[in-house]
Design a protein that fits this description.
- Helix 9 links the parallel strand 10 and strand 11.
- The chain is 36% helix and 26% strand.
- The protein has a seven-stranded mixed sheet with strand order 7-8-9-10-11-6-12. A six-stranded mixed sheet has the order 1-2-3-4-13-5, with helices on both faces.
- It is globular, with a radius of gyration of 21 Å.
- It has 337 residues and is of the alpha+beta class.
């Protein structure tokens, strides 16, 4: 059923499910649609016995190269992916709606670890899974530390000997932790821009960080590592439904005091103390030891990798789809059985 967003009572009921379900992710709540304010929003849900059992938030925007709208359900749907009795009717309804609206693509990328049997069941049910890099909006793999520790000291003790040495060295450098507020976003942005320009990579506009901060409120924590009164590194953590996501981080590198180790460990401390189950240090595209991003993230996650189930892609206009992916990375991340 497509949610009538003007029906206040029904909207509240569905939004409550999207926020409180054990399968909820922050990408599937209304707050995320406020961050992506230039995208249109639709919500669909399935009931069983009068209770909502599955729902999905679908955002849509026109792809300039395709000339048509792409419909995307980030980290959806919110349901047990093994429960085909509600999953399949939900997806079928969304597919029909996207086709009616003239969309060229419906993309869904569940936050569900790869499972051979489940992947095959999905394919057998007519749900195609794509693992080409051009199909990923999120990363193919995430470096994630399961938080089974009583405190930060216990977490640090689980790291390798070399990582423990790096962390303890950082804590001897007179670094200060500063928990920021909304008025500190310009400083967060300054450090982000400096790092992006140094590495030659793109960064979000400053308004994006204001939108994220305002939309998620108490779920967001912005922190800085300071040395001799100057902020030299920053982190933005979003905590939701047992997961602490290290969404953004940057480092000026004006000094090398292990400030990134320091900030990550302070975020791990916070995640443990607030009852989170996982610290998600973010994605990687390679598990090769020569990949610098992976080499750093593996140290603070004990090399724990979630390879996600894959991207459900329903293509309704092959020509538009071909235009959209032209020239993009074709690296194949299909799991090796």
């Amino acid at each position: 059923m497509r949610l009538n967003l003007s029906n206040v009572a029904e909207k509240q009921r569905v939004e409550s499910f999207l926020e409180s379900s054990p399968y909820a992710t922050f990408y599937q709540v209304e707050a995320w649609s406020r961050v992506k304010a230039n995208w249109d929003r639709d919500v669909f849900y399935q009931e069983r016995g009068g209770a909502i059992e599955a729902a999905i938030q679908v955002l849509s925007v026109t792809n300039a190269k395709a000339g048509k709208k792409m419909y995307y359900a980030p980290r959806g749907p919110v349901c047990d992916l093994n429960d085909f009795d509600v999953l399949l009717p939900l997806i079928d309804e969304v597919k029909s709606y996207v086709q009616e609206q003239g969309g060229y693509l419906l993309k869904i990328d569940p936050q569900v670890p790869y499972d051979t049997a489940l992947a095959q069941r999905l394919r057998d049910a007519g749900i195609p899974l794509c693992y080409k890099m051009y199909s990923y909006v999120q990363w193919p793999m995430s470096m994630t530390l399961p938080l089974t520790f009583a405190d930060l000291d216990e977490a640090i003790q689980s790291f390798t000997k070399l990582t423990r040495k790096e962390v303890r060295k950082a804590y001897r450098q007179n670094l200060q932790l500063i928990v920021g507020a909304r008025e500190d976003i310009p400083e967060f942005y300054r450090i982000t821009v400096e790092m992006s320009e140094r590495k030659g990579v793109a960064h979000r506009p400053i308004d994006y960080y204001y939108q994220l901060y305002d939309a998620f409120g108490d779920h967001v924590r912005m922190t800085f590592a300071a040395y001799e009164g100057r902020k030299i590194a920053c982190s933005l953590l979003l905590s939701f439904n047992g997961w602490a996501y290290a969404l953004y981080g940057a480092d000026t590198l004006e000094v090398d005091l292990g400030q990134s180790y320091f900030l990550d460990c302070e975020e791990i401390r916070y995640a443990i103390e607030t009852g989170m189950n996982y610290y998600d240090l973010g994605g990687v595209k390679s598990l090769h030891p020569e990949n610098g991003l992976y080499r750093f993230k593996r140290k603070l996650t004990n090399d724990h990798v979630f390879f996600w189930i894959g991207n459900m892609e329903f293509v309704f206009d092959e020509a538009a789809y071909a235009r959209a992916i032209e020239g993009q990375d074709t690296t194949d991340y299909t799991p090796v059985e």
